[in-house]
Design goal:
Radius of gyration: 25 Å
Structural class: mainly alpha
Strand content: under 5%
Largest sheet: none
Number of helices: 2
Number of strands: 0
Shape: elongated
Order of helices and strands: HH
Helix content: over 70%
Length: 64
Amino acid sequence: MNKVIQFIKESYTEMTDNVSWMSYKEAQDSSILVLVASVVFALVIGVADWAINFGLDKLYQVLG
């Protein structure tokens, strides 16, 4: 049990003293960047899906 308590104490010390946390502004900027990148990626995938679906529908109409 002593090892568990020691681990928790060391973990707390590591998180409070040695980890460099980003500022609120940096976290906000990173979140906005991830949101914009996700939307752009979703749009690209959506357009590609639509184009493939459209192309296959036309191909099936010609062949069928």
